[in-house]
Design brief:
Layout: H1 4-8, H2 10-13, H3 19-27, E1 30-34, H4 40-50, E2 54-59, H5 76-81, H6 85-96, E3 101-106, H7 114-117, E4 123-126, H8 131-144, E5 148-154, E6 157-163, H9 171-174, H10 187-190, H11 194-214, E7 222-227, E8 232-237, H12 256-259, E9 265-267, E10 273-276, H13 286-293, E11 298-301, E12 305-310, E13 313-318, E14 323-326, H14 331-342
Parallel strand pairs: 1-2, 1-4, 2-3, 4-5
Antiparallel strand pairs: 5-6, 6-7, 7-8, 9-10, 10-14, 11-12, 12-13, 13-14
Length: 344
């Protein structure tokens, strides 16, 4: 009789480049997924089903109805419960593959916590929806010599690439500076196709599994570009010639994004929303706050967050004292509302 693992992963083990030895390496792998949106959630799903032993999922947001069009780890119950994405994703993965150890981290990634989140990790997956997070991740991975899988998706297409410090170009080799705020389209302004997000996530998961099994980058590093609407797939070689490059990060060893202090308030990508960080660490008492705030507006509270609805604004407070304010793109107004109602 076959062992349960042999049955579960039998089709994967029969794929010659993986085999039994490769599956054993996948089983002991430790992967960090930053962002549980269209890319991160599906990559987490695929890696969990492939048997990756440990997944650390980090996301700052809660599940929204508009996510369900492309984020298959979530359902309407997650929306109604107001669950953080990392928590909902971990719960679903536990139902898919109980042998995978999943650590859900409900937090905003910034320069103060990224190095800690990278501890004990051998590969990182980019599930971001913003450039700032990717440049911060690039700094941290170059500094710690950690490989990561870059991915981005918009409209009907996207790109993916495996970036290995010292072997392939880093993100700043490819694009020295992030685009100016507000100039780049986002999924909230131009939309995104579910099949496009799933295809890019599949490319990310494939690149991740290959690296976890072989421990090396492909001989010729490349950026994979896909447009599902037009039916186009392109591969662009990205040779690494450090002696001919002046990259401030991987050549100059300057980590400008990692060394910058976290901002007190951030306008969230493509939305009328601002995230406010507490000036000092805070652990709010949700139940006490809920009793007081029910005199002010509609309150939804669970073990993960407290949400206060004050049309045209909606304020969500997390356990780490971080708050999201929907209905404004003005950081000053967002900080004022958080201070007024949450006292943080």
């Amino acid at each position: 009789m076959e062992e349960p693992d042999e049955t579960r992963y039998s089709r994967q083990v029969r794929f010659t480049p993986i085999g039994r030895d490769g599956q054993a390496r996948i089983r002991t792998a430790r992967v960090l997924i930053l962002g549980c949106g269209g890319l991160g959630a599906e990559t987490a799903n695929l890696l969990a089903r492939a048997g990756v032993g440990f997944l650390r999922l980090v996301d700052r947001d809660v599940v929204e109805l508009s996510n369900l069009q492309r984020q298959a780890l979530f359902d309407e119950n997650d929306v109604h419960e107001g669950l953080p994405k990392a928590t909902a994703a971990a719960r679903r993965i536990a139902q898919v593959n109980a042998d995978v150890q999943v650590e859900a981290v409900v937090a905003d990634l910034d320069s103060s916590n990224i190095l800690g989140l990278l501890q004990g990790i051998e590969l990182v997956i980019d599930g971001f929806d913003n450039f700032e997070g990717r440049y911060l991740l690039n700094d941290a991975c170059v500094k710690l010599n950690l490989p990561w899988v870059y991915g981005a998706c918009l409209g009907g297409g996207g790109v993916a690439a495996l970036l290995v410090p010292g072997v392939t170009p880093c993100l700043r080799c490819l694009q020295p500076t992030p685009p100016e705020a507000g100039l780049s389209p986002t999924c909230d302004t131009v939309g995104i196709l579910g099949p496009a997000a799933h295809l890019i996530a599949s490319l990310e998961a494939g690149l991740a599994l290959r690296y976890l099994v072989t421990g090396e980058a492909p001989r010729h590093a490349a950026m994979l570009s896909v447009d599902v609407w037009e039916g186009r797939l392109e591969r662009v070689d990205i040779p690494y010639l450090p002696e001919e490059q002046s990259c401030p990060c991987c050549v100059g060893r300057r980590f400008e994004f990692l060394d910058a202090p976290p901002p007190p308030a951030v306008v969230l990508c493509g939305r009328e929303a601002v995230q406010v960080h507490p000036a000092v660490p805070a652990q709010p008492d949700f139940r006490a706050l809920a009793e007081r705030l029910r005199m002010v507006g509609e309150v939804v509270v669970n073990e993960y967050l407290l949400r206060l609805k004050l049309p045209p604004h909606e304020l969500t407070l997390f356990h780490d004292g971080r708050a999201n304010v929907l209905g404004t793109a003005d950081p000053a107004l967002a900080r004022s509302l958080v201070s007024r109602y949450f006292g943080i």
